[in-house]
Each structure stands twice: as C-alpha cells, then as structure tokens.
Design brief:
This protein is of the alpha/beta class. The protein has one domain: ABC-type transport auxiliary lipoprotein component (Rossmann fold), CATH 3.40.50.10610. The strands form 2 sheets. Strands 5-2-6-7-8 form a 5-stranded mixed sheet, with helices on one face. A 3-stranded mixed sheet has the order 1-4-3, covered by helices on one side. A hairpin with a 5-residue loop joins strand 6 and strand 7. Helix 2 packs across helix 3. It is elongated, with a radius of gyration of 23 Å. The termini are far apart. About 8% of the residues have low confidence.
Length: 204
C-alpha cells in the first residue's frame, strides 16, 4: 500500500514541475549593449596625427534616476515611462556610455590615449569631457531622443569648451529592441562627433 504522504509529496512535485514548464514559465531577460562606431566608418577619424599624443579623459557620466536602471526605458507619454523587465542592459548606462564615448573619441580624435573615469593615477590627463545626460530613451514608434549637457576641461581645471546643450534624434528601423538599441548607439555616435569636433578646434 502506498504511503499517503508519498502521494502528497509526488502530487506537490508534479504541480511544481507543471508550473515551471507551463505557460507561467519565468523567462530570462534579453541583454543588450551600446555599440561604438562600426569599423567601416572609422575612416572618418582624423587622418593626421595632430592629436595622437593627446591624453583624453571621459569623466563620470551623470544620469537621471529614471534612466539609472538595468531595464531599457521608453517614453510612452509626456509624464509616463515604461521599463521593460525582459529587455535589459548588460551593464549600467553610467558605465556603457563612457565606454562607448571613449572608443568613439579614440577613433574620431586619432588618439589611443583615452581613459574613462576614474583614470589611472599615473596618467596625466590633458583634456577631459564631462557629460550630463538629460534624456535618453525611445518612444512608442521606436525613435530615440538623446539630450545632454557637456563641456571640455583642461588639466588646470579651466574650461576649454563652455557648457553646451546638444540634442539628437535617431529614427529606428523598426519597433524591435534591437533596432531601438542600434538607434541609441547612433545617437551616442553623434554626440561623440560633436565632442571630437570641439577637441579639434582647441589649439595644441
């Protein structure tokens, strides 16, 4: 005769297994990263070695709290945002934006001596960029808006480029998260080009 306790345990295990494999199965989030300027476009980098010795720093990036999260955010209304639980960043934006900016600026300015904050204590920085992100999200149609305030600072602390407001809008190929993240990467590339152009204007 089968022990009633065994039957109960078996039934509970069967229910648990059904819950794990059934319609309510928990799905793992998909992870995304911002990307730097594609290799074929790096030919737009400065051809001369005018800035090859420039020691460039990418300072800490500040973000609004609504964007300082792993979920990818879309602006669904004037006063409403949506954070996608199943579409997330593989690294915080406060880390990925400086990383991508550094890669882009290295290519666009023509220097390999680019560090992100906190830069190595033994490395002197000739110039660094500070960026405050005001807005960085897609809309229901998939298009992306990026708004930033940024400035360039010399090693002695003086401004090389006064505080500047830059806004960008990038269309998305479709409404998929992949297309949205690609558009966000292009927006960061546009910001990188403006910073690189400002650096090129600073006397060496």
């Amino acid at each position: 005769m089968v022990d009633a306790r065994c039957l109960i345990s078996f039934a509970a295990a069967a229910l648990l297994l059904t819950g794990c494999l059934g319609p309510g199965t928990t799905r793992s989030p998909r992870l995304f990263v911002l990307s730097a300027i594609p290799a074929p476009l790096r030919s737009e980098a400065a051809a001369s070695d005018l800035h090859s010795e420039l020691r460039l720093g990418v300072g800490r990036i500040t973000l609004p709290e609504r964007l300082n999260r792993l979920q990818i955010v879309t602006q669904t209304g004037e006063n409403e945002i949506h954070a996608a639980d199943l579409s997330q960043w593989a690294e915080p934006l406060e880390e990925s934006i400086p990383r991508v900016l550094a890669e882009n600026l290295s290519a666009l300015v023509g220097t390999e001596r680019v560090s992100t904050y906190p830069w190595p204590t033994k490395m002197d920085i000739d110039l660094w960029v500070e960026v405050a992100v005001i807005r960085f999200a897609g809309n229901p149609e998939g298009d992306v808006s990026l708004a930033t305030r940024w400035r360039l600072i010399r090693a002695n602390g003086s401004e090389a480029q006064p505080l500047r407001l830059s806004t960008y809008s990038e269309p998305s190929a479709d409404r998929s998260t992949e297309a949205l993240v690609a558009a966000m990467s292009r927006a960061v590339a546009s910001l990188s080009r403006d910073i690189a152009a400002a650096i090129a204007m600073i006397p060496r």
